[in-house]
Amino acid sequence: QVQLVESGGGLVQAGGSLRLSCAASGGPFSAYLMGWFRQPPGQDREFVAAITWNGRNTDYADSVKGRFTISRDDGDSTLSLQMNNLKPEDTAVYYCAAETLVAYTDHLPAPKPAPKHFDAWGQGTQVTVSS
After folding, report:
1. SS3 29
2. What is the rounded distance in angstroms from the CA atom of residue 119 to the CA atom of residue 4?
3. Residue 85 neighbours by CB under 8 Å, 6+ apart
4. Can you tell me the distance from the alpha carbon of 102 to that of 86, in angstroms, rounded to the nearest whole number?
5. DSSP string for residues in 57-125
6. Res 2: pLDDT
7. Who contacts 40 (Cβ-Cβ below 8 Å, separation ≥6)?
8. Pairing of the two strands 68-73 and 10-13
9. pLDDT for residue 124
10. Are 29 and 2 in contact (CB under 8 A)?
11. What pLDDT does 26 receive?
12. Rounded CA gap, 24 and 34, in Å?
């Protein structure tokens, strides 16, 4: 069973940058659709970004488009999220997710995929953006 471990969270001032990483193990990372989600305090988990197994298709939440970039390194089995121009409303716990039941899918399961489309999750990393 695939295991996902996030890192890179922290406290940053508005306008700053952070790079989140997700290390995967226990499965064929290169075959998986991967995604980032976040859960702000007191709110539901929400979609941030997703990338297909071959990196050809990506999608972003409208709120982060142009500021965040999702990428993957299959050699290191690592998923990344580069976050620039951070805003206080980006404050949340960020989760890495994998869709492991269907391999090598070239298309996202839906526009802005929901948490239900992913079956493996990390423990999350806290990102706090101060104003």
Report:
1. helix
2. 11
3. 15, 17, 67
4. 33
5. -EEE-TTTTTTEEEEEETTTTEEEEEE-S--GGG-EEEEEEEE-SS-S-SS-SSSS--GGG--EE---E
6. 94
7. 46, 89, 91, 92
8. unpaired
9. 98
10. yes
11. 94
12. 10
The three-point CA angle 61-65-69 to 5° equals 100
**Strand-pair category, 125-130 with 46-51:** unpaired
CA 131 to chain centre: 23
Contact residues for 81 (Cβ-Cβ < 8 A; gap 6+): 19, 20, 36, 48, 49, 68, 69, 70, 94
Q: Is residue 83 within 8 Å of residue 20, measured between CB atoms?
A: yes
CA proximity to 27, closest of 99, 83, 87, 105: 99
131 residues of the chain, pLDDT tens digit each: 899 999 999 999 999 999 999 999 999 999 999 999 999 999 999 999 999 999 999 999 999 999 999 999 999 999 999 999 999 999 999 999 999 998 888 889 989 999 999 999 999 999 999 99
Residues 6+ away with beta carbon under 8 Å from 66: none
Tokens 């079956």 -> residue: 119
